[in-house]
């Protein structure tokens, strides 16, 4: 059966890394391993330049209709001065919210070949396999009021509002505990219940969900301590569930453990449709548009390709093919191939296109 993918490359390196995924799609379709129809849309600065908005209504509708959305990255200094509501990042936030993809899975895995590439010592990260489960459609990203008020005396007041309701915490916690059951069976929940009311509710709800999963080991951790523990002894973690903002920050920290931010994929999933059981799904690398290296052809496409592998697994049940893509990535790294962002000295590096081609050629064998 044919499945539709909406490809939204975005800005900066987003367009460069998406090309490498398109080559993989062309191959899997050609081999009859998949039957994807692909459509493209503009998001972020690219959409703003053409339509003066960060994403058009038409592309939002296309995203809602697609079986899965594959997203590159948005943003860049070119759009620093555009009105706040049209800034490139607004496209991403709107799409996440409108698709209702509340569960953002951010796996941080240390590929064996990259044990020396992490900023931490080999023994601390060898075999690392953490899954950050970030709440994605609530919290301070979306809470109202969100505004800057002119106080009229030369002063302004800026307000962002952290809001969580029981159901939002309950559903993300269940995703985390369900996933923990398929892994090593341990969940840490990170919040700031010592300071924030939303943290108090977060902890109360996660603890009550934990009671439904007596087979899963549950730990509470304060988010600041979680940041410290991630760099002190990351292998103590298996699944970490946390809110939108803490999840954003903690996942960038986790990314670096793996050798580069350019390695970390993500899947964002909605609630299953009551009739079809299908979930809305959005796949994107954790990193941004990397304006500092955009246009140079040196971006690491691995996070993007691994995000596509997550789409194969979570949206299309192509678990074996997803595993093959991930194995191809591991094999290429095993051969010593590296893009420049991967933190190892004294190694010759290759560009985006060469890395994409190397992964594809491993897939072909
Ligand atoms: P960034 O993730 O774009 O870059 C941080 C650093 O990591 C840079 O030095 C960059 O060169 C490097 N890097 C990131 N991905 C890489 C890759 N695949 N290969 C090689 N190196 C890579 O974060 P930033 O610089 O803070 O943000 C730049 C812009 O991207 C901002 O406008 C920000 O809002 C946006 N952003 C977008 C997303 C997204 O679209 N999902 C995510 C994060 C940031
Ligand atoms: C991410 C990004 C986004 C976020 C930005 C670009 C809106 O940093 O996906 O991690 O903060 O969620
Ligand atoms: Mn981020």
TrEMBL record:
GO terms of biological process kind: L-leucine biosynthetic process
Localization terms from the record: Cytoplasm
Pathway(s) per entry: Amino-acid biosynthesis; L-leucine biosynthesis; L-leucine from 3-methyl-2-oxobutanoate: step 3/4
Cofactor note: Binds 1 Mg(2+) or Mn(2+) ion per subunit.
The enzyme's E.C. designation: 1.1.1.85
GO MF annotations, alphabetized: 3-isopropylmalate dehydrogenase activity; magnesium ion binding; NAD binding
UniProt site (Important for catalysis): 141, 192
Broad EC category: oxidoreductase
Cofactor(s) annotated in UniProt: Mn(2+); Mg(2+)
PROSITE patterns: IDH_IMDH
Signal sequence interval, chain numbering: none
Residues that hold NAD(+) according to the record: 76-89, 288-300
Record domain Isopropylmalate dehydrogenase-like: where: 4-359
Alphabetical UniProt keywords: Amino-acid biosynthesis, Branched-chain amino acid biosynthesis, Cytoplasm, Leucine biosynthesis, Magnesium, Manganese, Metal-binding, NAD, Oxidoreductase
InterPro entries per UniProt: IsoCit/isopropylmalate_DH_CS (IPR019818), IsoPropMal-DH-like_dom (IPR024084), Isopropylmalate_DH (IPR004429)
Chief localisation class: cytoplasm
Residue sites binding substrate per the record: 96, 106, 134, 224
NCBIfam families for the chain: leuB
Job of this protein: Catalyzes the oxidation of 3-carboxy-2-hydroxy-4-methylpentanoate (3-isopropylmalate) to 3-carboxy-4-methyl-2-oxopentanoate. The product decarboxylates to 4-methyl-2 oxopentanoate.
Stated family: Belongs to the isocitrate and isopropylmalate dehydrogenases family. LeuB type 1 subfamily.
HAMAP family in the record: LeuB_type1
Protein's UniProt name: 3-isopropylmalate dehydrogenase
The species this protein was found in: Devosia geojensis
Source organism phylogeny: Bacteria, Pseudomonadati, Pseudomonadota, Alphaproteobacteria, Hyphomicrobiales
